[in-house]
Amino acid sequence: MEIQKKNLESKPEVLVLTISGKISAKELVPFSETLDEVFQENRFRIIMDLTGLEFVNSMGIGKLVVAHKKCTASGGKLVLCGINSKLMKLFSILCLDGIFPMAEDLNEAEKKVF
């Protein structure tokens, strides 16, 4: 798993996390630590670009749900974008497609993050 953090150029208060690879048991700790760092920096408007994400296990999905709740509780928003069809099917089966704001790409996510 690789995570890149950058501010959205047009809206620097929005953080873009680009996640690629897999979120499985061995990646869970670094994934959690990254999210903890983001929240400690009081960053609650987040776009997660999942274009390169191949797999996420149930614990990783749990971390996404917790992140969504933290953002919402703090007056922010977590938007997921670039989700491949396999992961989208998983989100749909788990009824998470109705919970998370989702976008096709970064441009659409930028419009949904406020």
In brief:
With 114 residues, the chain is of the alpha/beta class. It is 39% helix and 30% strand. Strand 2 (15-23), helix 1 and strand 3 (45-56) form a beta-alpha-beta unit.
Description:
This protein is α/β, with parallel strands linked by helices and 114 residues long. It has one domain: 2-Layer Sandwich (Transcription Regulator spoIIAA). The chain has four helices and five strands. The mean pLDDT is 98.
Q: What average pLDDT do the residues reach? A: 98
Q: Helix coverage percent of residues?
A: 25-40%
Radius of gyration based on Cα positions: 13 Å
Number of domains: 1
Please render the helix and strand layout as text.
Elements: E1 2-7, E2 15-23, H1 28-40, E3 45-56, H2 58-73, E4 77-81, H3 85-93, E5 102-103, H4 106-112
Kindly list the characteristics that best describe this protein.
Transcription Regulator spoIIAA
